[in-house]
Amino acid sequence: MEFGLSDEQVMLQDALARFLSGTGGLERTRAFAAGKDRRAPDVLRGLAELGVTGLIIPEVHGGVGLSLLDAALAAEQLGRFVAPAPFAGTAVMAPLALLKAGDAGQQAAWLPKLASGATVAGVALSEVTGARDGAGVEARDGRLHGRAQFVVDYEADLFVVADRARGLHLVAADAPGLTRTDFRTIDATRPTGELVFDGVAAEPLKAGDGPAAVRAMIDAGRVMLAADTLGAAQDMLDQAVAYAKGRVQFGRAIATFQAVKHMCAEMAASLEPCRSLVWYAGHALDHLPEEAPVMACHAKAHLSEVGTFVARTSTEVHGGMGFTDLVGLHYWFKRIGYNRQVLGGPQAVRAEAAALQGLAA
Amino acid sequence: MEFGLSDEQVMLQDALARFLSGTGGLERTRAFAAGKDRRAPDVLRGLAELGVTGLIIPEVHGGVGLSLLDAALAAEQLGRFVAPAPFAGTAVMAPLALLKAGDAGQQAAWLPKLASGATVAGVALSEVTGARDGAGVEARDGRLHGRAQFVVDYEADLFVVADRARGLHLVAADAPGLTRTDFRTIDATRPTGELVFDGVAAEPLKAGDGPAAVRAMIDAGRVMLAADTLGAAQDMLDQAVAYAKGRVQFGRAIATFQAVKHMCAEMAASLEPCRSLVWYAGHALDHLPEEAPVMACHAKAHLSEVGTFVARTSTEVHGGMGFTDLVGLHYWFKRIGYNRQVLGGPQAVRAEAAALQGLAA
Amino acid sequence: MDLSYSAEYEAFRAEVRGFLEANRSQAPGHGGNGLTWQKLLIENGYAARTIPREYGGYGGEPDILKSRIIAEEFARAQLSPGLGGQGISMLVPTLLEVGSEEQKRQFIAPTLRGEMLWCQGYSEPNAGSDLAALATKGVLEGDEWVINGQKIWTSTAHLAHWIFCLVRTEPDAPKHEGISFLLFDMKTPGIEIRPLVDMTGAANFNEVFFTDVRVPAHQIVGRRGEGWKVANAILRHERGSLADPNVMQSRLNALIDLMKAETLDGSRVIDNPIYRDRLMAIQGRVQALRCNDLRLLSAAVNRQSAPLAGMVVKLQGTELRHELEGFAIDVMGELGLLYGDTPRLRGGGSWQRDYMYFLGLIIGGGTSQIQKNIIAERGLDMPREPKLAKA
Amino acid sequence: MDLSYSAEYEAFRAEVRGFLEANRSQAPGHGGNGLTWQKLLIENGYAARTIPREYGGYGGEPDILKSRIIAEEFARAQLSPGLGGQGISMLVPTLLEVGSEEQKRQFIAPTLRGEMLWCQGYSEPNAGSDLAALATKGVLEGDEWVINGQKIWTSTAHLAHWIFCLVRTEPDAPKHEGISFLLFDMKTPGIEIRPLVDMTGAANFNEVFFTDVRVPAHQIVGRRGEGWKVANAILRHERGSLADPNVMQSRLNALIDLMKAETLDGSRVIDNPIYRDRLMAIQGRVQALRCNDLRLLSAAVNRQSAPLAGMVVKLQGTELRHELEGFAIDVMGELGLLYGDTPRLRGGGSWQRDYMYFLGLIIGGGTSQIQKNIIAERGLDMPREPKLAKA
């Protein structure tokens, strides 16, 4: 019985934190956000060197063969440093698609490239978690038609696309008939956009159970976003505490004011149990298949709510500075905001949790 | 343009406050709660002498002919002093029923008695605002069948009963075939219970538009409960501030702790706009018929939420004392809890507000 | 309780409507020019209404209801209510109250006409909530103040011709009594302006740096050391205006339209009971603040007092706007993340912008923590925090 | 991460189950007697497990997992886990840590057997959050303490044989150092007990008044003036136990059953999306606290540290229980108001009772404000409030 991180897991987190702070931390994120590049190759390369891109890919395919909990721990660090890097799609959901629904040839063709970071894969299944704007993709006669919005890790070479029947397909980024429309969102660290399929020839993943693979991808994707929020929110709390200790008003550090202390205590009190929830949900993905979908919903919804509270409260503790670009706190605020909506907002995800338990009418 | 209380209205409030504190205030309520009496005749008599029982009854019928806003101001004082007295039913909803749906004979027979307090009328229409436990009343061949729960001002001589078709009926408390079952609730100040009708002969109110009368009764009843909560919550805030100024811990009045001050400030900030909301909703009942139903819903729902917050927060400011019977704060807490559920809880009332605006599917 | 307007006011309303109909073509955005429009409004008493004629105003009697009617009718006609800005809203009332006759004559008229734009130099990096801690120094050398220091949150500094500024001129006086209120030209040598980008992505504010900025000694309002008093009377006016419940009402209406238009899995969001419940909860709170506003208006008209009702407006209003805008983002889901120049953007990105901007307003102009202190101490008469022992 | 139990522990679990099956008929409520049952549990190591044999315990090694397994299996079998109360949960550990050999021999065994019931005398009317302010005085006269003062929040005072009590014995020492920890018989002359009725309508607590109560001098635990230290080590244990997430889980299950059973206008409440959304939000928070509890258990087993995870349990857990119970009242609507001996009551009135009782717990054992101070200062290393100037 051990519910905690192994030494190896702590080392993974530390290594990732060292790399991400060494690679520039907030300043790298700022430069990425300000520039015209839609990828940060240095960050991606570093992650590949650390094995993060191949974290859950089996060693036989060039990965390191770790668990989805390890992936969640990596996501937490990426959120903590608001890293401008693809992850939930290319390193988690796309490999899961290949592992659960791809045939041996597809796995051999793509998994090593994903593991090495040579290929970045985007994942288009937002419509399965809730279609907006009438979007959705249909497969007819081996070709895809329709529209997919809010692709996870959209700046990609390859797309894993879920159709309305929860079948999965591979589409090259330069496939004829595929039109890409870049979106701008509040979160400059994770580019996204829309794909329009006009009879695009696609390669189906049909070795496994498509709907089951889609379910696993959604569950894992939600836990990754929750973990990302955990890391970002923890950092916002840490920044708030540090700022409050240093900021003097009325002749004393504002950290000595009970109102400020209580704001920080409330953030800590709501956030600390979230860490265990994310661990459990991450563990469940691999080991507790019956619990995994519901726990992924709860992790996603609860971290969205707590994340929103922490994002707002940390900004308040920073006073006017929190509102400016000078301290850059808004990168964390917006990252948490993005994680809230993608793959299902809190209401939608709670409704799904109820349905999964047979509680919905 | 004047949105405020007239001198007469302030005098009415003052007179009522003087009477209710003079009649014993909390101690009178305690005695009532501890005793076996289900009525407090001294309180009722005093209210009658002040004209409160006949507040909205026209002078021609022995009342004082004031407005429903005046009635809301009276309800506020009753809540403030957690007075063990019938009001929303006997002094507001029942007279409205007679005025809007009764014929001249019925009005002449009952309104003077209600005005003088000689007759107390209970109102049975909970099932119209939301039927629990399969309750509900049907009228067949001039007789009533079924069950009505949570009668407002249940300790009564006469009942005004709404059937499922929103027809209204008068039933004497001792009518053959009528069985009464007393309930005990958290709120000892306002006895309630259930009526079972086994083919009870009833006198229909059929001079006016029954459903419209029921609508007016519900709107007014909701505003009265909201006003009662306003008064009770304001008093809980006042008690919290007074307690905090007097209570010394760690060598200083707890009112000097920022956490305690902010709890009181948050109560005041959420409660103060409620006063204007109740005024507006009360005014709308008489003067803005198109707005009245929605505003009554908002007053009821919003005061329920703010009331719950204030009830809990004031108790916390009182520390352990707030939890005891020694200071008796729980009478206010429970009064607010009662007002929250009766005539529709916040969710139900908000759903009705949406439907009234044509927003529901 | 009487929510109707008397015949006099109804007549006034008709007059305003008549004016707007007749002059629509002269309004900015409808073919007219902003400065000409301002002149026309002042001549007719729809701008600078209560400012004396000798200083360039209309010279009318103060009448809260007429002011409200003017605001309502201009909003209804969707025509500009004339020039705003901190010069007109803050400096002019200040000068009228405490300026010298010469200052009134020199500054008020060009400010009203829009020829002289102002910015405000109050906040500093280390003097936010604690404004009395401000450190920008002014030293009298001969007949000039020599000013060094830094201001922050200076909106429109890059557009302003002049600044009204708090400067510490009496370093040895108690901290509230060592500040003076100075006016000076933004073209004076030694002033550097840096735009301050905020979380909305816009530079709504600036930092302003002063290095040996020389200002004629007579450009002081009030006496030396009275700057705190001069500034404070006006600051209070600013707080309520950040959370106008009528603007909130129109945002709520826009939100309802949004919920009717947006779909999730093919169903309108407005048809989802959970979202509808949240909408109604917000509507109830908006109504409470609208009624509170009506009470404040009435109290002002009838010279009654409702101090607590006024104190809670900023705290409650900015919080509610932040929540309302955030709820709209939830309504749109992923589409609510879109921001800036991007396809599929809803409402010009206003929901995200205002969600962030109102978080800024929760903080700005006195944080929520400061507001709660004020409500507790001034509104509920709770004691101030005891003095600290010297460290 | 490994949530399974090793073979040793699975065997132990099987052993506990076997015991429970075999001995069910001896349990209270199933034909057995509470004191006999307690004796049987101690003999088998299911109660007083780690307490040395010479003091009447089982004498086993501390093993957190076995303790957890015992608790789980007794709960699953719905059989009494043996006697509880403040004597067993608080006094016995205190005596084991700091009691004299004589005190251990005199008090522990009869307490464990249930022959000696205790109450706790810590809080006073003016020493609640500020326990160090306690004023009950003990003066040594000859070889007796003479005690005068008042305690409050003394649960089971009317049933207890003895009390463990904090008394100020050194009036001239600094306030934390002037308190002693005394034990005495509740039949000692001069003790008056008044039941303290609370908002739930029950007398869950008492006030206890001392007038010249004479206590033998040797009935002190630790030395004079060490009472604060003696009491404090144990107090920490109490805080977490107020919000057991496993109890919370079973309340949540009961809530779901309630929502399936209750109807509004003929529809099951569980079929209303708004209520379902609130239910799921609560379930998510319950899950977070259950996972947090698992982490604390694991940290204790593996001697790791998770201080913040422990500090937040009381604040979060009591708050969540209060909200959960309050939500159940909303689910029932008017029926949720019923309380006491009344027709149509649901769940024996437990929802209303726990709604109120958990508000009491939010306050009791350190108010939420005190909890937040602790989290900020000890958990987040934020500075204490500066010292006040002497008034």
UniProtKB/TrEMBL annotation, chains A, B:
UniProt superkingdom: Bacteria
Q: Which cofactor does it need?
A: FAD
The record's listing under Gene3D superfamilies reads:
Acyl-CoA dehydrogenase/oxidase, N-terminal domain (1.10.540.10), Butyryl-CoA Dehydrogenase, subunit A, domain 3 (1.20.140.10)
UniProt-listed InterPro entries: AcylCo_DH-like_C, AcylCo_DH/oxidase_C, AcylCoA_DH/ox_N, AcylCoA_DH/ox_N_sf, AcylCoA_DH/oxidase_NM_dom_sf
Q: Which GO terms describe its molecular function?
A: acyl-CoA dehydrogenase activity; flavin adenine dinucleotide binding
Q: Which residues form the Acyl-CoA dehydrogenase/oxidase C-terminal domain?
A: 208-350
Q: Which Pfam families match?
A: Acyl-CoA_dh_1, Acyl-CoA_dh_N
**Domain Acyl-CoA dehydrogenase/oxidase N-terminal spans what residues?**
6-117
Cite the entry's keywords alphabetically: FAD, Flavoprotein, Oxidoreductase
* Family, similarity comment: Belongs to the acyl-CoA dehydrogenase family.
Question: What is the official name of this protein in its record?
Answer: Acyl-CoA dehydrogenase
Q: From which organism does this entry originate?
A: Phenylobacterium parvum
UniProtKB/TrEMBL annotation, chains C, D:
Quote a single Gene Ontology cellular component term.
plasma membrane
Is the keyword Oxidoreductase in the record? yes
Q: Residue limits of the Acyl-CoA dehydrogenase/oxidase N-terminal domain?
A: 7-115
- Sorted alphabetically, which Pfam families does this protein's record hold? Acyl-CoA_dh_1 (PF00441), Acyl-CoA_dh_M (PF02770), Acyl-CoA_dh_N (PF02771)
Q: Which residues form a coiled coil?
A: none
Could you tell me one molecular function GO term of this UniProt entry? oxidoreductase activity, acting on the CH-CH group of donors
Top-level taxon of the source organism: Bacteria
Which stretches make up the Acyl-CoA dehydrogenase/oxidase C-terminal domain? 225-379
Q: Which cofactor does it need?
A: FAD
Instruction: Provide the Acyl-CoA oxidase/dehydrogenase middle domain boundaries.
Output: 119-213
Identify the InterPro entries for this entry: Acyl-CoA_Oxase/DH_mid-dom, Acyl-CoA_Oxase/DH_mid-dom_sf, AcylCo_DH-like_C, AcylCo_DH/oxidase_C, AcylCoA_DH/ox_N, AcylCoA_DH/ox_N_sf, AcylCoA_DH/oxidase_NM_dom_sf, Mycobact_Acyl-CoA_DH
Q: Which UniProt keywords apply?
A: FAD, Flavoprotein, Oxidoreductase
User: Which family, according to the similarity comment?
Assistant: Belongs to the acyl-CoA dehydrogenase family.
Checking PANTHER family in the record gives: ACYL-COA DEHYDROGENASE, ACYL-COA DEHYDROGENASE FADE29
Question: What is the name listed in the Swiss-Prot or TrEMBL entry for this protein?
Answer: Acyl-CoA dehydrogenase
> What species is this protein from?
Phenylobacterium parvum
* Taxonomic placement: Bacteria, Pseudomonadati, Pseudomonadota, Alphaproteobacteria, Caulobacterales
